[in-house]
């Protein structure tokens, strides 16, 4: 309750004023009576009253001098002058010193009630504002504040309210709303940026439903500001399931803000009463990666866009939160920058900033799809008119030269795809498209040609050794493959070389090719 100090040199007048306050305004308490301005200054330093009622004419230090001195140390302390002067000039001088009101003697009880009621509202608003500042210090992790009696063990309801997408890490946010709203047991504070508010409610004074209604009203205010600024106007509200005490507000608000980020879905206004139950991370899809690889290697802008549009459709179907979309898009960009023959190096240098810009202003999944595709297209260099001139044959020839140099080793399609950082399925497509046959057929052809050279150069070398040198551990299997490709067994080929005879004109019989000769 507000505390009043009476400054009056006449004891009878002081007692009358005190009794009138106690009778007519019981919500106020009189903390003391001082006989003059000098005594009052000492008492104010000691008892810290919320309001002063002082007589104008007093010994030692009169009312106007007292008020002038008081304002030096306590500029916000409201003072009401009580005087028998009806002189307008005196009243004007009193008000000039900072007096908030002027009561004439004899005091009209109705007028006293009117003045104190108005000042009571003012004091309540001031105390609420100061208490809100103290709470804000708790939220920021700085409990050493104004010294108001904010109980660090008091329990609060907590909600975080946000309009639009994720908070910025790199873009400058010009705050336009620094308001601290205080409504009885409800407090509404600025959040991490101008699109976010942090709501607190004193739990024992404010029920769950009333608190949720007030938090929703805060969201409506953010929507109004967003629409005026042409920004995304969907809102996400997280009503925190726990009830933190004052000293735990900093940790609770931090956790609630991070949890809120995982709930934001483009274009969807939602209210949540608990954090996400499980991780929202989107798994890496190998089939999708194969589509990207093929589109990049073949410089097919249409296929690249189709893959991204299909992915965006899956985000919408799942209702994927923006934080999960951001994570997957980041991985896609790294993949594209690594695999694209003509990747844009400027994207690699500014990836995080460009990623944030791409997602910052999206209003719905359609805009999200457009932004994601625009960024991936830029990263791949697909906006360049010369993108279709990518040198795919040169890439395939590099793979073929590697196989020709390592044919004697145990080479598999999987190992080769790892070596060149492409998928096995895409590698198979390259061999058929640019080599005219499968990987297994190409490897077998290279090995058999090498075997023929060895036989010509070393006709006395045992076929078992020749098979081993060209990569076949089983000489019988080597013979079957050799005959299927050359048209005669390696032993006949060897004998013809020893005798210096021309080879029989033999055409490989397709029906004689062993089952699965190219593992």
Shape: rod-shaped
Structural class: alpha/beta
Strand percent estimate: 5-15%
Biggest β-sheet strands, sense, barrel: 6 strands, mixed
Short description:
The chain is an alpha/beta fold and 519 residues long. 52% of the residues lie in helices and 11% in strands.
Structural commentary:
- The chain has 519 residues and is an alpha/beta fold.
- Helices cover 52% and strands 11% of the residues.
- The chain contains 20 helices and eleven strands.
- It has helices at residues 11-24, 37-47, 63-73, 88-96, 109-139, 208-229, 249-261, 286-297, 301-318, 322-339, 345-349, 351-360, 365-380, 392-406, 413-419, 424-435, 439-457, 463-469, 475-486, 490-499, and strands at 3-7, 29-34, 51-55, 79-83, 101-104, 156-163, 181-183, 186-190, 196-202, 235-239, 270-272.
- Strand 4 (79-83), helix 4 (88-96) and strand 5 (101-104) form a beta-alpha-beta unit.
- Helix 2 packs parallel to helix 3, helix 8 packs antiparallel against helix 9 (301-318) and helix 12 runs antiparallel to helix 13.
- Mean pLDDT is 85; it is low at 501-519.
Fold blueprint:
Blueprint: E1 3-7, H1 11-24, E2 29-34, H2 37-47, E3 51-55, H3 63-73, E4 79-83, H4 88-96, E5 101-104, H5 109-139, E6 156-163, E7 181-183, E8 186-190, E9 196-202, H6 208-229, E10 235-239, H7 249-261, E11 270-272, H8 286-297, H9 301-318, H10 322-339, H11 345-349, H12 351-360, H13 365-380, H14 392-406, H15 413-419, H16 424-435, H17 439-457, H18 463-469, H19 475-486, H20 490-499
Parallel strand pairs: 1-2, 1-3, 3-4, 4-5, 10-11
Antiparallel strand pairs: 6-9, 6-10, 7-8, 8-9
